[in-house]
Amino acid sequence: MNELIQQVRDLVETPVNILGEPIQVFQIVSLILTLTATLLVAGSLHRWFRHLFNRLRMPQDIQNRLLALLFLIIVIVGGGLAFRFAGISTGFLSKLFHYPLTELFQPPKKTVEIGESGEASPIETVEGDGSLTLARLFFAFVIIFGMFILSKYLQWVLRRQVLQDFQIARHTQFILLRFFHFTLITIGVLIALSAVGVSFTTLAIIFGGLSIGIGFGLQNIASNLISGFILIFERPIKIGDLVEIMDVDIFGRVSSINLRSTIIVSLDEKEIIVPNSQLISESVHNLTHDSPRFRLRVPVGVSYGSDVEIVRTAIIEAAHEHPTVIKASNPTMENVTPPFVRFVSFGESSLDFELLAWIPDSFRRFDIASDLHFLIWKKFKEYDVTIPFPQRDVHFYPKEEK
Fold it and tell me: How far apart are CA 236 and CA 281, in angstroms?
């Protein structure tokens, strides 16, 4: 029994050579147990603080950030205490953090030097400046994490103190802030890669090659992204505008403008996803760019025997009976006139007139035009005005006998 106890004691006190430092087994066991206890304490505190935050009705996003920060602090402090309790020297930690990680993926090498005495002695390899180490990885993580925190703070400042002063639309704010966030994160990643030893020359060569290959494959996407920025900053169309794309016969109201595409809701409440490049390269009729008002044109034809003054009166009365049509001019509404009738032409079988009336919402123009057709038909019945239909007189002549 005493021999077994002595063997266990010898095993525990036996030093293990790790990175040139003698580390005893009981120190490793103590380190593992302390780290395990640290993780258990961190998990318990994480659950307790989440319960506390829920009772305080704290927003979920703030909860997640505070809990992640708390967990990180506990792990870092616990890790430091674990190494201290285990009695591991700071020299070992320094070697551990500066040990080249690439050596872990290479076969062990034993380099010897033959001295003057003819005896072999080991040569200590010196870490190169470009070696990937834990210290550099940790520093790169700190850079990316710090850039993420900086991005969140600057987004909050821009949203509260800059974008609102310029009265930029909410969707435009969202797009600009997301672009700003990804730009900062990209800068942070590039700095982090440089911190771990990747040179900017290498990155330039890699990204240059990728840009050529990706450029051909993502040419349309890049075109849509650039067009998206043009739509955001130049603002030829805005959310709520009623647009008509001439070449593809798309008509509807703009509901969302994104970096790659724009969503248009048609008259039958169907969402149409239109690439932004199409809105830039093709002819787009914006019916509500400056104002939602719209001048409606309703063509009307009557027979040649009709009294043109009665026709004018009937059409004007029909327009005034519709509740949506703007009846009188208003100084606040520039270029808006009361309904009037224009004599267009002498047609083949009819006198052609046109009702011009302003309506407050161009999105309802088809429904209002239909209502006006009903009202005009009713007025023509009252005034005994005839609506002609195309007709032709065909004369047959007997064939002359030869």
Answer: 13
The CA distance from 69 to 65, in Å, is 6
pTM higher than 0.70 = no
- Bridge-based pairing of strands 120-122 and 351-359 is unpaired
And the tokens for 133? 């180490």
At 90-141, the pLDDT tens digits run: 556 566 655 665 555 555 555 444 555 555 454 444 444 556 676 777 778 8
Q: What type of residue is 104?
A: L
What lies within 8 Å, CB to CB, of 6 at 6+ separation is none
Burial (CB < 10 A; 0-12, 13-18, 19+), residue 104, is exposed
CA distance 355 to 371: 13
Say if residues 252 and 266 touch (Cβ distance below 8 Å): yes
Question: How far is Cα 317 from Cα 359, in angstroms, rounded to an integer?
Answer: 16
Q: Residues for the chain: how many in total? A: 402
Q: What angle do CA 184, 186, 191 make, to 5 degrees?
A: 95
Rg (CA), the chain: 40
DSSP letter string over 187-247?
HHHHHHHHHTT--HHHHHHHHHHHHHHHHHHTHHHHHHHHHHHHHHHH-SS-TT-EEEETT
Residue 314 has pLDDT above 90, yes or no: yes
- The 10 Å Cβ neighbour count of residue 221 is 14
